[in-house]
UniProtKB/TrEMBL annotation:
Domain Metallo-beta-lactamase: start-end pairs: 86-296
Organism from which the protein derives: Flagellimonas flava
Domain of life, source organism: Bacteria
Stored InterPro entries: MBL_superfamily_lactonases, Metallo-B-lactamas, RibonucZ/Hydroxyglut_hydro
Assigned protein family: Belongs to the metallo-beta-lactamase superfamily.
GO molecular function, one term: metal ion binding
One Pfam family hit: Lactamase_B
Entries under Gene3D superfamilies matching the protein: Ribonuclease Z/Hydroxyacylglutathione hydrolase-like
Keywords: Hydrolase, Metal-binding, Zinc
UniProt name for this protein: Glyoxylase, beta-lactamase superfamily II
UniProt entry tagged with the keyword Hydrolase: yes
Keyword Cytoplasm attached: no
């Protein structure tokens, strides 16, 4: 998400930041709807819904006529110009490791002060892990696909305590370098604030900086370079016993981005690179054995990619 798109979406930087203050209605009553479980070979997989955010269609598809967008969105039962979008985390568990992929927006019981303004975070990941009996101390690895707030906000508590004290944190070195260099100067100050709070202090913790493409970071979990949305975003290819899962993070924000590779979002840093990444991931995904998990698609974001005459198409799991 860049500053322009961010401001355009929300009007002002602070007063209407829904992802910071939203309390998903009766989330405790709907606990089961916020947790989705399945298996990939030896991995027990759980998708948690941290919260739901709402985006404006014109920010999801910035270079497309709004009538065309609306007509395409109606195929997904969206008849307004608002697109509901979950934030998720994916937990992978086998006999030796408990791996968390992305950390949610975070939760704060007290207001956080940023530039003299107060806000609170209402991510539900901590609650949901607790309800499932998953101890944060038992998490051995945390993989951060990129450094936008909805993916890193839960690394530290609002009191500055590391939420996963025994974990090794995996991230691509390009993402780290970008956010810790002058290249990130044009990024929204609030995003930089999240990085300063949740990423920079990791320099004193166990960090694995991924270098290069297709790196096996944990047995059966391979990082795939997926730049464009951010400088060093990664996707993840999870494989076990001939079953595969591709975690595409934010390379696609909506299934329509798979059908229309030229439809740009205001949240990608570099459109040409984002398109190249989309093609690469669609190629990887479009086979009979690969399931796909998409961070911002309808929860739990599980489906597959079909090859069609003119390209690719997303199919949600039934
Ligand atoms: Zn995201």
């Amino acid at each position: 998400m860049n500053r322009r798109g961010f401001l355009k979406t929300n009007g002002t930087l602070f007063s209407t930041l829904p992802f910071l203050n939203i309390i998903p209605g009766s989330i405790m009553d709907l606990l089961e709807d916020n947790i989705h479980e399945f298996k990939i070979g030896r991995f027990q997989c759980t998708v948690f819904r941290d919260l739901i955010f709402k985006y404006k269609a014109k920010d999801y598809f910035i270079n497309v006529d709004s009538m065309e967008v609306q007509s395409e969105l109606s195929r997904f039962d969206i008849t307004t110009d608002i697109i509901p979008s979950p934030y998720i985390s994916l937990l992978l568990k086998d006999n030796t490791r408990t791996v968390l992929i992305d950390s949610g927006i975070g939760f704060s019981d007290e207001p956080i002060v940023f530039k003299g303004k107060e806000f609170v975070l209402r991510g539900q990941l901590s609650n949901l892990l607790e309800r499932k009996g998953i101890s944060k101390n038992g998490i051995t690895d945390v993989i951060l696909t990129h450094f936008h707030p909805d993916h890193i906000g839960g690394v530290f508590s609002n009191k500055g305590q590391l939420n996963y004290p025994n974990a090794t944190f995996h991230m691509h070195h390009t993402e780290w370098d970008f956010w810790h260099s002058s290249k990130s100067v044009a990024q929204p100050p609030l995003f930089k604030f999240f990085v300063e709070k949740n990423i920079s202090p990791l320099q004193d913790e166990k960090v694995n900086f991924i270098k290069g493409d297709y790196q096996e970071i944990i047995d059966g979990i391979v990082s795939v370079e997926a730049p464009g949305h951010t400088a060093g975003q990664i996707a993840l290819l999870i494989s076990s016993n001939n079953e595969n899962l591709l975690y595409i993070s934010d390379a696609f924000l909506h299934p329509l981005h798979m059908e229309h590779l030229d439809w740009r979002t205001s949240f990608d840093m570099e459109h040409k690179m984002a398109k190249k990444t989309r093609t690469k991931l669609l190629d990887l995904a479009s086979n009979d054995t690969t399931r796909v998990n998409a961070f911002h698609f309808d929860f739990p974001g599980m489906g597959r990619v079909d090859t069609i005459k003119k390209g690719w198409r997303w199919v949600y799991d039934k």
